[in-house]
């Protein structure tokens, strides 16, 4: 997986400027110049002095070239001597890796990845190789010390990452449990995963990865397939049922961006312009307003400034569309009690609904369990009934 | 205090090991609107209005407190101007020398520069929304301090401690938390004077809270159960006692069935519940389900004794990517309240309602996004019909601009307050750097109130907003704002 690092690594090599074909008559053997590929202690790069044998300004124009001194920026586990020792008689010739099939010996180029795959029995395109194949040629990112963040950022994603469910638990989650230490580690380290798995209980597989801050050069910001464009509108039931799933990617602060009382937020939980249409939504109880808003400090503070607040018993002043609303408000109150509470205090209702001082109208309706309420909070009963709670 | 400092110094890790993240979100608004002024009139001077209620001779509907000699009403007042500035700060600190130990705080400060208190929400001036120390390792998480738990029983704030123990291999976790509770929906104790306007029987002491949660998460689904009890320490009576269960099953790729319910042990009735079938694929996602909603009231109020009735709803929504750059959405819900068991022959109130939305989002090239929507809802108390549209230009660069407009007709059922509102505005965003964002916006609310009396106050107003979000911190993953959240 993601083994096109080969291409990346070899593109860094300075030998690209040298036209091998042009010199094919002079060098019958590769090791004449690249002695280090066959002999321990020798350099893999030619000695500049050997170039000057011809390029002295008389025979040929002079060339200025120095062998690179910095370590090669690569994540390959390959070195020529080791490879030859392991492969023994199966070791390919130089052109077996550095030329396309059918090309002449000196039409050399960066190693042809497909030829590596062919030799190692991997019958797929490079990036489509099975996860277990990555370690054949690559070291984990954490061990590719010469790689820079830009190098990491350029790592290509294999086709498997584009699958619709790759971001789901059954996608990369299942894969990672099998190959996180091998295939995934080729391009990723723990910090990469923590970009999404920011919860306090990250999957165990992540801890199998090494730590390497360079891994965040690959930005992990895509949402899983389950998060359609309208997910913000319909995530409530999923979140309520499965907060564990959410915490795989989200931290509490993400939820609290919208789900908390804060005047610093604009339209977050609610859609744009919700303020304008909130009366219908609030009356209709589209959502549980009081889960996030305290009517005492939220609704009332605005309503009071708009003249929409009650400081006494019900009269026709506000509910002026119904002349007899006072005597017929029972159904409306039981259906929209939260709306009532955003303007009315308890004393407004106790004027009539009290067993001791009001008109003794019974407010208890369907489902009211007097014995249970009394058992749970006797003090509440005394508000209306005094000491003579039935 | 000295001992604490000594301990801190002794166990302090090198400064280089300290990590922190600070996010400041400041929003300044300038707003002006027509205020109201309370006025009074002797009861004997009132006349009968067109709907039978008392009004002033010049037509203002009045409210006459029982036994009082004067009736009250609101006249249009002077223009109110507010300049609120609200800042929310989120801070996280780690690297105290103990792996897994961190501290978190979220606070909010608010002030109205005009000093007129014309704008709500600036009192109290400083609120600690959350502030706790956390120790978290693979098997457990422990927290102490002010916390805000979110679960199907609501947002539960408290000052205390919580402990979560988990077995990741089997997908199990168990949590227990407890402490002194906060009022619902706000980071204030129930004893706060800020809550007093609505609560005549405010408790003298904060409620003691104890909650527990247990969950299982597996490949095919998740299940969760929760319990919460709050007790008034001054009387040992319950303030609330509820349980909730919820689960989601994923029988096949793209399909999910979720369901949940909560039961009020104190009141002895079922609260809210829902069951939903959802499907998500690349080009289409949809959801269909039933739900029931009943509000919950703490027992230190008398509202629960008024027997709020639930409604039951059937709802569905679908989103289809009709074309590669066009997404169409639709949703609807129909609901009906249970029988309120009251006889109101003189007043007829709607018992059922519905709401729906149609919308389309189109992307032209990569920088332009067009969105249009139509919403309509009708139900007890109010209705509304609205259209909205917006155009957003967001090139690959650091800025974006949105122009939006909406029209809304919102008649009320119980009050002569049908109004037509036109809203239009512009929002701009500029990402100064990966850790800093500026937003500037202005919106005009133009409302035409259609009341049959002089109280049809012109509520039209302009609002201008300037917002700055700044994130600073240590750590390698602070390369954008904010992390780990979809935008």
Give me the secondary-structure topology.
The complex is a heterodimer of chains A (390) and B (487).
Chain A: H1 5-11, H2 48-52, H3 80-87, H4 94-98, H5 113-119, H6 134-137, H7 149-153, H8 169-187, H9 190-194, H10 204-207, H11 231-241, H12 243-246, H13 252-256, H14 274-283, H15 289-292, H16 299-305, H17 330-335, H18 337-341, H19 346-350, H20 370-376, H21 378-385
Chain B: H1 2-11, E1 19-42, E2 47-48, E3 54-55, E4 70-82, E5 84-94, E6 101-112, E7 126-136, E8 140-151, E9 154-167, E10 172-181, E11 208-217, E12 221-232, E13 237-249, E14 255-264, E15 269-280, E16 284-293, E17 311-323, E18 326-337, E19 352-364, E20 368-379, E21 382-393, E22 399-410, E23 418-433, E24 436-450, E25 461-473
Antiparallel strand pairs in B: 1-4, 1-5, 1-25, 2-3, 5-6, 6-7, 7-8, 8-9, 9-10, 10-11, 11-12, 12-13, 13-14, 14-15, 15-16, 16-17, 17-18, 18-19, 19-20, 20-21, 21-22, 22-23, 23-24, 24-25
Question: Which stretches of chain B of 5+ consecutive residues score pLDDT under 50?
Answer: 13-17, 476-487
CATH architecture of the domain at 117-279 in chain B: Beta Barrel
> Could you please say which CATH topology of the domain at 117-279 in chain B applies here?
Porin
Structural class determined from secondary elements of chain B? mainly beta
User: What does the oligomeric state look like here?
Assistant: heterodimer
Total E-strand runs of chain B: 25
Overall 3D form of chain B: globular
- Output mean pLDDT of chain B: 84
Through-space gap between termini of chain B: 44 Å
User: What is the radius of gyration of chain A computed over CA atoms, rounded to a whole number of angstroms?
Assistant: 37 Å
* N-to-C span of chain A: 76 Å
Q: State the order of secondary-structure elements of chain A, H for helix, E for strand.
A: HHHHHHHHHHHHHHHHHHHHH
Order of helices and strands of chain B: HEEEEEEEEEEEEEEEEEEEEEEEEE
Helix content of chain A: 25-40%
What is the number of helices of chain A? 21
Q: Give the percentage of residues in beta strands of chain A.
A: under 5%
Our estimate of the beta-strand percent of chain B is over 45%
């Amino acid at each position: 997986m993601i083994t096109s690092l080969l291409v990346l690594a070899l593109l860094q090599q300075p030998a690209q400027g040298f036209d091998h074909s042009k010199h094919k008559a002079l060098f019958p053997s590769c090791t004449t110049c690249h002695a280090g590929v066959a002999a321990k202690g020798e350099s893999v790069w030619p000695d500049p002095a050997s170039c000057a044998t011809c390029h002295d300004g008389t025979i040929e124009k002079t060339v200025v070239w120095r062998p690179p001194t910095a370590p090669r920026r690569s994540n390959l586990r390959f070195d020529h001597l080791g490879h030859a020792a392991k492969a023994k008689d199966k070791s390919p010739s130089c052109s077996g890796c550095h030329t396309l099939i059918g090309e002449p010996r000196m039409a050399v180029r960066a190693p042809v990845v497909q030829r590596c795959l062919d030799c190692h029995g991997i019958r797929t395109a490079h990036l489509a190789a099975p996860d277990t194949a990555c370690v054949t040629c690559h070291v984990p990112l954490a061990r590719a010390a010469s790689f820079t963040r830009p190098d990491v950022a350029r790592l290509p994603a294999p086709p498997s990452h584009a699958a619709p469910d790759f971001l789901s638990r059954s996608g990369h989650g299942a894969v990672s449990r099998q190959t996180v230490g091998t295939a995934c580690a080729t391009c990723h380290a723990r910090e990469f995963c923590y970009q999404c798995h920011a919860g306090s209980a990250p999957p165990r597989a992540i801890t199998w990865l090494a730590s390497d801050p360079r891994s965040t050069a690959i930005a992990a910001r895509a949402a899983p397939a389950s998060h359609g464009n309208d997910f913000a509108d319909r995530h409530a039931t999923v979140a309520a049922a499965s907060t564990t799933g959410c915490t795989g990617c989200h931290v509490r602060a993400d939820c609290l961006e919208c789900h908390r009382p804060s005047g610093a937020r604009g339209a977050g939980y609610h859609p744009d312009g919700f303020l304008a249409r909130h009366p219908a939504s609030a009356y209709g109880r589209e959502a549980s307003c009081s889960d996030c808003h305290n009517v005492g400090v939220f609704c009332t503070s605005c309503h009071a400034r708009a003249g929409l607040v009650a400081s006494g018993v019900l009269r026709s002043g506000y509910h002026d569309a119904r002349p007899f609303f006072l005597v017929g408000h029972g159904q409306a109150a039981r259906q929209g009690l939260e709306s009532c509470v955003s303007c009315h205090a308890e004393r407004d209702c106790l004027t009539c609904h009290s067993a001791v001082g009001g008109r003794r109208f019974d407010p208890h309706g369907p489902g009211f369990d007097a014995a249970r309420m009394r058992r749970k909070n006797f003090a509440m009963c005394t508000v209306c009934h005094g000491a003579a709670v039935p | 205090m000295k001992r604490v400092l000594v301990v801190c110094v002794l166990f302090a890790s090198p400064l280089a090991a300290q990590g922190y993240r600070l996010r400041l979100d400041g929003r300044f608004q300038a707003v002006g609107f027509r205020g109201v002024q309370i006025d009074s009139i002797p009861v004997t001077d009132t006349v009968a209005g067109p709907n039978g209620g008392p009004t002033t001779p010049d037509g203002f509907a009045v409210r006459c407190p029982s036994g009082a000699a004067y009736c009250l009403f609101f006249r249009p007042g002077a223009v109110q101007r507010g300049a609120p500035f609200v800042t929310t700060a989120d801070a996280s600190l780690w690297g105290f020398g103990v792996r897994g130990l961190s501290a978190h705080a979220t606070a909010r400060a608010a002030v109205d520069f005009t000093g007129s208190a014309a704008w709500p929400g600036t009192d109290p001036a400083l609120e600690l929304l959350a502030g706790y120390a956390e120790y978290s390792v693979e098997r457990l998480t422990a927290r102490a301090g002010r916390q805000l738990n979110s679960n199907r029983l609501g947002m539960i704030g408290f000052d205390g401690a919580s402990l979560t123990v988990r077995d990741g291999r089997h997908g199990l976790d168990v949590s227990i938390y407890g402490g002194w509770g906060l009022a619902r929906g706000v980071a204030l104790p129930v004893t706060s004077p800020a809550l007093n306007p609505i609560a005549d029987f405010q408790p003298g002491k904060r409620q003691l809270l104890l909650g527990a949660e247990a969950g299982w998460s597996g490949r095919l689904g998740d299940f969760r159960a929760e319990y919460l009890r709050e007790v008034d320490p001054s009387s040992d009576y319950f303030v609330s006692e509820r349980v909730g269960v919820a689960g989601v099953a994923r029988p096949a790729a793209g399909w999910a069935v979720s369901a949940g319910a909560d039961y009020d042990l104190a009141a002895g009735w079922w609260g809210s519940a829902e069951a939903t079938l959802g499907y998500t694929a690349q080009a289409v996602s949809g959801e269909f389900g039933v739900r029931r909603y009943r509000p919950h009231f703490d027992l230190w109020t008398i509202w629960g004794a008024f027997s709020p009735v639930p409604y039951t709803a059937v709802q569905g929504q679908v989103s289809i990517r009709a074309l590669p750059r066009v997404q169409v959405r639709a949703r609807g819900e129909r609901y009906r309240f249970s029988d309120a068991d009251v006889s109101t022959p003189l007043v007829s109130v709607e018992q059922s309602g519905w709401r729906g939305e149609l919308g389309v989002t189109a992307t032209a090239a990569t920088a332009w996004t067009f969105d249009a929507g139509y919403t309509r809802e009708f139900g007890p108390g109010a209705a509304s019909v609205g259209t909205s549209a917006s155009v957003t230009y967001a090139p690959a660069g650091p800025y974006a601009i949105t122009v939006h407009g909406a029209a809304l007709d919102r008649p009320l059922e119980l009050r002569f307050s049908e109004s037509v509102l036109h809203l239009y505005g512009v929002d701009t965003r500029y990402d100064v750097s990966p850790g800093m964002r500026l937003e500037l916006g202005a919106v005009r609310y133009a409302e035409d109130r259609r009341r049959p009396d002089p109280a049809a106050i012109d509520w039209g107003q302009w609002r201008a907003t300037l917002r700055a979000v700044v994130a600073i911190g240590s750590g390698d993953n602070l390369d954008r704002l904010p992390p780990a959240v979809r935008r």
